[in-house]
Model the fold of this input.
Amino acid sequence: MTVTAALRLDPARLRARLEGFGRIGALPGGGVCRLALTDADRAGRDHLVAEMQALGLTVTIDRIGNITGTRQGREDGPPVMIGSHIDSVATGGLYDGTLGVVAGLEIAEALNDADLTTRRPLAIAAFTNEEGARFAPDMMGSGVHQGALDLGAMLAVRGIDGAVLGDELARIGHSGPAPCPGPTPAAYLELHIEQGPVLEREGLDIAAVTGVQGISWTEMTIAGQSNHAGTTPMGLRRDAGLAAARITLAARALAQTFGPPLVATVGVLELSPGLTNVIPETARLTVDLRHTDADTLTRARAQLLAEAEVAAAEEGCALSTRSLADFPPVAFDPALVARIETAARARGLRTGRMPSGAGHDAQMFAPNCPTAMVFVPSQAGLSHNIAEHTEPAQLAAGAQVLADVALDLLEGTP
Ligand code: HGY
Ligand code: MN
Ligand code: MN
Done:
């Protein structure tokens, strides 16, 4: 039988799968910690492979550990891909990334239930290290899959805990044989929570996402001089901690000067030796800058680096910097964005359009094939927080819109 009518999903099954992943790497107070390539991530990966196999999908794992489950179509050729990630930050929620992968599994199972064979194959993908929390940069697996990042360079990345990515991939048994870059799909779709306050504030159920803003991560290392906190006059100090604090304030001031949508975050700030009575000898900090316009992002980063040089010099410290991530803004396929909007409205859902503040695997596919995303609301705009929450009905609505658009593409409706 070929696909004729809309696909009926099972919201209870979707929720059960999400809860199943939520038990892997579960944190005592709620949420999950499945940092890329840790044992918790391995457990999530093994669970996903088993789920895919139970659905009759053909599972492949590539050289950077991306997992793809493929459901054959009536014809061969490039699949429609539904993807996201199952790794998390250290204080992750139940839905960031996992929702997109689980929604793909639900669509595959609904097709099985209906005994429907689509014209094109359906591929469901979970990309390695989307978060970039342990190993920078983020969107690593999808970046290697689509040729935006070099496999060898990424396998050699050393994480915040000193581990080498390629060694960890082998250790957990997820260094696969499939070549990288991987094949570009006919189209790429991703369902994700918004991770921000817009949908909830606007009273919307769905966003057809128009693109992803540019992302710049810089690591700054400041070398001063450790000295006695009691005996060293303020004018003789080379205080790496003070230089780091000045740079942190400069990042905030930069965002205020440039105004929205520029955002600036110092997420890592480590002082050494980190003792009460010792003036910090070294400081390591990271600055995450984002903007929807590439030139503005470049100007903001240049201005921050210049101000960091001045701050370090005035504190008698040496500054070294390293780029950890540098991704330009991307725009999604306008026709696909419109199809998401139409599909959501046809379901009676309050629908809008917005760019994504967060990075996503979809941004690696956007230059190479028709790509778009579906957002569902995040309660209180919270994410990268164990209290991350989206109502079950909203999760189900997002999955249904994803299914409706995917079905059109799977049948190759022009
Ligand atoms: O950094 C991001 O925006 C994503 O969570 N990796
Ligand atoms: Mn995510
Ligand atoms: Mn995330």
